[in-house]
Write a structure and sequence with these properties.
The structure is a homodimer.
Chain A: E1 12-16, H1 18-28, H2 30-46, E2 57-61, E3 64-72, E4 76-84, E5 98-104, E6 110-115, H3 117-135, E7 142-146, H4 152-163, E8 167-171, H5 175-185, E9 191-194, H6 198-202, E10 207-210, E11 217-221, E12 231-234, E13 243-245, H7 247-252, E14 253-257, H8 260-266, E15 279-280, H9 281-285, E16 298-302, H10 307-318, H11 321-324, E17 328-331, H12 342-348
Helix pairs in contact in A: 2-3, 2-4, 2-10, 3-4, 3-10
């Protein structure tokens, strides 16, 4: 016979599993949820200066990277665990998996543990669309989506929900990926055009999104492909040695970033001199500096993903726990009645004898 | 009606709850388990140079600290989340709570999530005793245990299991804490003496363990209390501004540490000049440098807790999962059949209509 102990409320941490996260998405609607997450991200970018910021803590290996991305606003602390293993896809695994946590700064006790593979896809797309709202040319209606992997449908629907996108032009080096994305987007209320080349994909597009996964210096967009007046949303250049744009494009663009110390290491701008001027997005959002200032300007959002975006997404999920009940209570923390009596708690959990 | 999705094996991460951890301790025996964890820690200290090491990543607030402690041996990656909030005790909360994770470096996929409040208590005591095995005077049989909080019983029993301790002399500024520890240790096969002063506690003791929790420069041991030949096991000085020993003691001692860059910030030696000589324990364990070299020498283990010890403890727990079955399978990772089809996985999880 085994004695069981009933954990106290303080010992239980709400846990959002992948299944619960998917139920949450469906109960809210994927576009509405990305709109909501974008609002949380925008609100947190507005109070950028109140956050502890640090470049992510990375552990590199020859085949990938494992990272911890912590931040805090003084009331809540959050971090995300995330890996990046481009070769995983060939083995039937996700390139990126993630989970995250929020904790009370006052007590240090976790208040939410959540899957973040799905949530990262949502927050990455929400961030791109929130930024495009500020930087894309007025009336932008068509996006070239180059790279049709796991992030492509989310990018498309976030741009639809937040920027009013009407048409997406898909291209991937692997036609099966394009077919997958086209199939998934077929009934989502947006025109979908499958393209046979990147040149075809960018025809008539005001927003160019690149999201490919190779861990190498690649040139997904060459200089002559990029005309004046477009907004480039560069998602896939997100670790040292991984870029997607020809350097010449960067020199023709006004470059907007999340957190310069991290982007200089991980983003497209690792190709440039360390003093090359960039604009921090939070300053555009708060009105300190202009975003797009002319119709002919090329704006480039050199996105690498920053801890505050995860923090915002976790806040969004946490704020929906009570109304939806879509979580488990996880017995994660030992919390004896007398905090000094951890050993006594252990002893009282001993199996009954006889 | 809600559709449920059955996660693939790859999506499920073994999770050891507090209840399962306590069952694991009882199925193995607390002393045997600390002996086992000490063996894993000692084995990992022997291959110290094969680990990625970094000082912990700390987020400080006026009331406490939240830390992430990552490390990797190239095959497994591990990290611990841990808080330190001395004021928590007054609010009925634990000063320290923790959980940890192991992941495959090859894929980035987590392979174990575990509570670590209980496990940290076990690994801290196991580390102290493993180190005392090398540094305490021969035939040491009596320990003064100053500070009778949550760690005190574990320290005592680890020293009994690993160093042959016969008698513990308890002292705490709060007699209720001493009474609690004495009660818990009463039937554990060791002589327990409750003392009314620190001076009384150290009478006849060869090992002096300090483990108090105030976040301030304190002087738990004064210089004249420490005679020659003893081993001091200083646990409680473990963050900036928190020390337990009079500086004069440090100057009379040979000081042994886990990882100097972290200990200089957090340990007793934050009181000393940055170039004050210290010895790394892994070099003692591998025989590169001597440990205790004379009967009159004062040895001081300035312990702050290092990521490799958590890594070792998590390895120990993971190696026992299959034989004990003491875990849940946690739906933590989204793992679609086609890794590029995260959106399709989400769509297929939609609630059935009608």
């Amino acid at each position: 016979m085994t004695a069981t102990t009933i954990p106290s409320d303080k010992a239980l941490v709400p846990f959002v599993s992948v299944d619960h996260m998917m139920q949450l998405v469906h109960s809210i609607g994927v576009e509405e949820m990305m709109r909501g997450i974008a609002d949380y991200i925008e609100a947190d970018f507005r109070r950028w200066e109140s956050f502890d910021k640090t470049p992510r803590v990375a552990s590199h290996s020859p085949v990938g990277v494992i990272e911890l991305m912590p931040t805090s606003d003084g009331e809540l602390y959050g971090f995300k665990y995330v890996n990046g293993h481009p070769k995983n896809t060939k083995e039937g695994l996700q390139t990126v998996t993630a989970f995250g946590l929020l904790a009370s700064v006052e007590t240090g006790y976790p208040v939410l543990l959540s899957e973040m593979t799905m949530l990262t896809a949502l927050r990455t797309a929400a961030t791109s669309a929130m930024v495009a709202k500020y930087l894309a040319p007025k009336g932008a209606h068509t996006m070239a989506m180059i790279g049709n992997g796991a992030q492509s449908e989310f990018q498309t629907l976030a741009m639809k929900a937040i920027c009013g996108l009407k048409s997406v032009r898909l291209y991937d080096i692997d036609p099966a990926a394009t077919a997958k994305a086209a199939h998934n987007l077929a009934s989502q209320g947006i025109e979908v055009v499958s393209c046979a080349s990147p040149e075809e994909a960018i025809e008539g597009a005001q927003i160019l999104t690149t999201c490919t996964a190779d861990k190498q210096y690649a040139t997904i967009l060459t200089d002559n492909m990029v005309g004046s007046g477009v907004h480039i949303n560069a998602i896939g250049g997100d670790c040292p040695g991984k870029t997607e744009l020809a350097e010449a494009i960067l020199h023709r663009s006004d470059i907007f970033v999340e957190y310069p110390p991290q982007t200089r290491i991980e983003g497209e701008i690792q190709q440039l001199a360390p003093e090359h001027p960039v604009t921090e997005m939070w300053q555009v959002i708060t009105g300190k500096v202009p975003g797009r200032s002319s119709d002919r300007q090329i704006t480039l959002f050199d996105s690498v993903g920053f801890a505050i975006e995860d923090f915002s997404a976790l806040r969004y999920v946490r704020d929906r726990l009570q109304e939806t009940g879509l979580y488990h209570a996880l017995d994660l923390l030992a919390d004896p009645d007398d905090p000094r009596d951890l050993f006594g708690m252990l002893q009282r959990a001993a199996p009954a004898k006889g």
